[in-house]
Amino acid sequence: MAQSVIKVVDIKKSFGAVKALKGVSLEIAPGEIHCLAGENGCGKSTLIKVISGVHAPDSGHIEFGGKVYTKISPIESIMNGVQVIYQDFSIFPNLTVMENLVFNSELKDRRKFVNWKRFRRIAQQAVDRIGFKVDLNARVGDLSVADKQLVAICRALMFNAKLIIMDEPTTALTTKEVNALFKIIMSLKEQGIAILFVSHKLNEVFEISERFTILRSGEKIITGNTSELDDKKFTYYMTGREFEDLRFKPKNVSKEPLLEVENLGLTGYFHDVSFSLKRGEILGITGLLGSGRTELALSLFGIHPADQGKIRIKGQEVVIDSVESAMKYNIGYVPEDRLSEGLFLPQSIADNIVISELENISSKTGIIDQKKRKAEIERWVKELGVATNNPANACNTLSGGNQQKVVLAKWLSRNLDVLILNGPTVGVDIGAKHDIHTILQNLAHEGLGIIIISDDLPEILQNSSKIIIMKNGTVTAELNPEEIDEDKLSEYMMGGNE
Amino acid sequence: MRKKVKSLLSKHEFYISLVIVLLCIMIEVRSGQFFTPNNLVDLSSALIVPGLFAIGAFMVIVSGGIDVSFPALASLSVYATTKILTDANYKGGILLPIVMVLVFGALLGAFNGFFIARLKLPTMIITLGTSSVFRGIMQGVLNSTQIPNIPEGMKNFGNAALFVAKNQQLGLTSRMPVAVLVLIAAIALAYFVLRYTMFGRALFAIGGNETSAYRAGFNVGRTKFILYVIVGAVSSLAGLIRTCMMGQMHPTNMLGMEMMIIAGVVLGGVAITGGDGTLTGCMLGTILIVMVQNSLILLGVPTYWQEFFLGTLIIVGTGISAMQVMRNKRRLVSRKLEEGS
Amino acid sequence: MNENRVSIRRKLSNFYYRDEYTSRLIIMLLAVLISMLILRPGKFFTFVNFQTMVAQFPEFGLMSLGVMVCMITGGIDLSVVGVANLASICSGILMKAMVAESGSLPWYGIPVGMICGIVIGLVAGILNGALVAKIHIPPILATLGTFELFSGIAIVLTKGKAISKLPMEYSALITSKLFGIIPVQLIVFVIMAGIISFLLSRTTFGTRIYMLGTNIKAAEFSGLDTSGLLIKTYALSGICAALGGLVMLANYNSARADYGAVYTLQCVLIVVLGGVNPNGGKGRISGVVFAILVLQMLSSGLNMFPQISNFYKPLIWGGVLLLVMTLNYFSENRNRSK
Fold this sequence. Notes:
The complex is a heterotrimer. The two termini of chain B are 30 Å apart. Chain B contains 14 helices and 2 strands.
């Protein structure tokens, strides 16, 4: 039996009163691909930081090939072959690929002077190791997300890595890029390098990992072989609850279309997009990253107004050239990146809810009616079930799912006709995900027209009454969710059935 | 070949050079006095002190900070040095004053470094504070007054000429000060440090992404501390040269220069947010500012219009730079979308 | 008995931490007052002294209000002194011209002069706002540039000299005392502070700029008119600065392009001291007002010690700023690890 690369034994870690890890154990064999999953706040990142030496555990120890450490420093962790690739890749966007690759090793060797020839040699060696073709003089900030990640991976490989920890590596990658990443992971495995990969995407867990560990609230729930896992079990382990599949069944669909889009286009991004949306319908839009689907949403919402085609709302042709005009036509938009685009985290939950509808609770001269404000806030906290005991608390005290509910509340507090959501349940726990889907389906039943843009195929299939696929900036198919399944959907997205 | 031209056109340094050339031509056309030997020497002479200050400011801005305390810092170091030497009736050469000024400058720079590197406080506000403290020490504690008779050694250094340029037409002569060698040496040294030492690359790394710098193993705190010590020393040297060239020590003479210097650096294409910029650009921007300051007279513009023009220059320069950043961002987004599918 | 003592200590502790910045300011205020009580009771605690103090601080107090609103949006206005001088110079020139034309200052002279100054402030502020919002120049650089520009215009208008020999009526009015007690300068400040406090806490404008200062991207995505808000903010700052200039005009009975040079730093100090976060999204008028009072009292107090020359003031202001920032740093860290 080969000795494990790393053995984590009964690690406990608290921050003040918060018990982040309550006695977690984990073992990874050489060349093993192991997935670490869990909802937000389960302790995944704390565990990684303990393994990489950023945090010292309160009790428990870590074994590297038999050597026992009760406390480890970042350097010792690196010496033992641990490399962490964080979500932001820890790169220098203003510097060249070459420099990004060599700094870590130069610093480790305590070099004071720069030898550009040596830099180039070392960098070329690093990229050749996984066959990454890139211009070493390119500014890393100008590279695509996938390439940035490859730079990070090449860098990680320069240190005799035995264990590479990847934190949510596929978040911003297209399907093609994810497949390329997985190929690389397999080749790393063949070289005997173990991978610990943090992910909450079920299909990835299945596709790439051999073993998995699920954490919940700082405790290890289960470690097992992926072959023994299925959707239901995964959900159950992640949340401790079982959920029923809720296929969306449209009710009260209006006769007349609410929103009609005819040959809509924005030069350079998308063209000839046409569809119609009735009250009570949920339109699912999916496609690979870069297919123009986000730009379509931004055009409908007035952030990047379209320059071709027509938009009709309730039968009347309208021009949406600003966010203001989109809001005038009662269109709302829940953005992709909740944290940086949707919320004002340090501000109160209350202010986050009312910020888009201040006109409704104030006089013509702009003076806010405090009574109305209070009533609005109480209403929405209750209706959407936002878990807080005081809306004056800052938004960053909420969990991801509750934060998304606040973003929803912000829009629902206005009288909307159309709600567009981009990636509505990204980074949201399975429990809150279920809640949000229920809310959306109910909204449709009550007469809203909803557009969901997502690359979570099960989400699209379960919640849409109509699906359109976008590829290369235009619509390539319009599908009925009842007639297809996930594999077929995937095929359409790749463009097999144009 | 076309790629090279395209890359040239996208560089900020190219446009600023263009502006400088145009300005030279304009002044020459208007006054016929620009490309005369003595004017060029005067200009080079005027460039020495701002150039040295700009090198320090450039390094700070590249690392992601903004230091507004350097004129006050320099004034304090130089005043203290000059006062001590004058009171002691110093008769020696320039070496001791240089050493003293560097030591004082380094100490004061360390003061800055403590708050910025150790306590990690925002640079602009901290240096607003330390600038005030330095001034207060100089004017309050040291009770600074003008020193009209500085030690011989310093005066001689200021007067020492490399060569003399003569304007045949008007019979004007200008001395090229020996101090210009200091500027040239400083530029060369700065170039070497920034390009060929890990310390220099660290400045760019920290300015690009400080968190990544920590993770990569850079000792960010120590790097920043050393940076501010160096900037303190270099700025003080610049102040010393100014005092020597002026032949007297006027304590408040340099105060207020910080904006001009920073404007020059930014005009040269250095991003105020850090991580981007070249020494060339920094010097070009400083040259432009110095030219505007010195040559308005040759254009027939009365001196009291100077600040107006400088203000306009800053606004136009930073405006163009800001618009370029916006355009680049947009280009990047559209390229990513094309590649993504 | 012990229980009471413990609960009082806890009550004080709760009160202190509820709003640390303001609490710290109150302590500083008390410290200054107590020191003065011990060292110079006769001179400091006189009616005349207090009257003088409240007549002096509106100059920079008004400018601080402007810097404050800009900082809430995550920016800063370093051009306030330039705007103030330009406004006072234009106003002074206009009033002198009116006197020159009709021999004495007409009844509408003062209002017109003041409106002129305010309009200059408004226009200057709009320029600042446009540079920041439309051209996206970082506020530090934009307002430093406009500071030079406005000062430059002021120098051109005055050819570097002072505008003096103003009509007596103006200075007399602004430096007069309502009911014989309350200086008019103070009234101007109180009105402006009141307006801004109302705007920030009770209007849509206020809520919106706090959010904008917190996260400008989310503000766009929430339908806020970010450009418009920024321009209005800097315009407001310009008006405050102009009012400060008009008060200076009355206090000095003259105007010059380089008056108030030390106020730029002082205003930033006041605003930071008052608890406004330079990154935006946070800050209250109460904090800034306390900070103004502390600084004024400290300034006046120092004047009563002739052995401490005025030159020490920058040292003290700088030192206080460093001290406050250091304390902020330690308190932030304590909060984070809670």
